[in-house]
Structure formats: structure tokens, C-alpha cells
Write a structure and sequence with these properties.
This protein has about 140 residues and is α/β, with parallel strands linked by helices. It contains five helices and five strands. The chain has a five-stranded parallel β-sheet with strand order 2-1-3-4-5, sandwiched between helices. Strand 3, helix 4 and strand 4 form a beta-alpha-beta unit. Bound molecules: ligand CA2.
């Protein structure tokens, strides 16, 4: 089973700022522990701050991986292009968020990804990624 975790803009700052919203673990630390726990799965990770790079990665893996766990960060709320890419690929995508976007500003209640996602998980901290992973098993 091949699963990709795909993170969007600013998520490379995890663990460095805003710990009350996003926690104090870096994503690399979390990813290492996830890989150890799910050692029988091929778990890949890619992060980019660039919209087109996220779309390229969706196209690259979206016909040969079993699942994609996508936290598109703020692009979730703005990017028709990422929404179209999710619609255009075969691999199911689970949209995840660390914070509960529905308990935050109104603009975070909009998602261009959700209509074409297999499901959405938000508000469980980094555990949101693990819950998404479990949904593919
Ligand atoms: O809760 C989430 O996972 C979000 O996707 C995170 C995005 C935000 O724009 C979405 O509305 C919800 C922001 C990621 C920024 O992450 C930072 C982490 C540490 C310090 C600064 C930003």
C-alpha cells in the first residue's frame, strides 16, 4: 500500500510558531513516528509552498498510489486549481486539517477540495493525519 502525505503552504513552519493552534512538534518528527508505527506501508511525504508544485505532485502520484492525505493549508480555501486536480486524478484524497477550521474565521469554512475528497478530517491536531491514514487501511 502506497500513501502520500501532501502538505501545502506554511506547514513547514509547524513546531516553530503558533504552538497553541498547531502544536509544538515539527512535521518531520511526527512523520518519522508515523512511519515507524505503520512500517508495513509505503508512506511518502511532500511539502511545498507553491500551488503548481502541489498540483504536479497530485498528477504524479494520482494514478498509482492507493491514497493521498492532503493538507493544502490556506490553498484549501482559495484554490480552484487544486480542487480541479483532486477531481482529475484516480487516487482517493482525504482532506485533513490540524485545527478545526469550522471553529475559526468564516473564510476557513470554505473548501475547494472537500467536494471531490473521499472525506474530511479536521481539528484533531497531527492525529488528523493518522485518522486519515487509518481510513485507507
Ligand atoms: O489547520 C490546518 O491544518 C490548516 O490547513 C493550516 C493552515 C490554515 O491556513 C488552514 O486554514 C488550516 C495554515 C498552516 C500554517 O501553519 C503554520 C504552522 C506554524 C506556524 C505558522 C503557520
Amino acid at each position: 500500500m502506497k500513501i502520500l502525505i501532501l502538505n501545502g503552504p506554511n506547514l513547514n513552519l509547524l513546531g516553530r510558531r503558533e504552538p497553541t493552534i498547531y502544536g509544538n512538534l515539527t512535521f518531520d518528527e511526527f512523520f518519522e513516528s508515523l512511519k515507524k508505527k505503520y512500517a508495513d506501508i509505503t508512506l511518502d511525504y511532500f511539502q511545498s509552498n507553491i500551488e503548481g508544485e502541489l498540483i504536479d505532485k497530485l498528477h504524479e502520484v494520482g494514478f498509482n498510489y492507493h491514497g493521498i492525505i492532503l493538507n493544502a493549508g490556506a490553498y484549501t480555501h482559495t484554490s480552484v486549481a487544486i480542487g480541479d486536480a483532486v477531481k482529475g486524478i484516480e487516487t482517493p484524497v482525504v482532506e485533513v486539517h490540524i485545527s478545526n477550521v469550522h471553529a475559526r474565521e468564516d473564510f476557513r469554512h470554505i473548501s475547494y477540495i472537500a467536494p471531490n475528497a473521499k472525506g474530511v478530517i479536521a481539528g484533531f491536531g497531527l492525529q488528523s493525519y493518522e485518522l486519515a491514514l487509518e481510513s485507507f487501511l
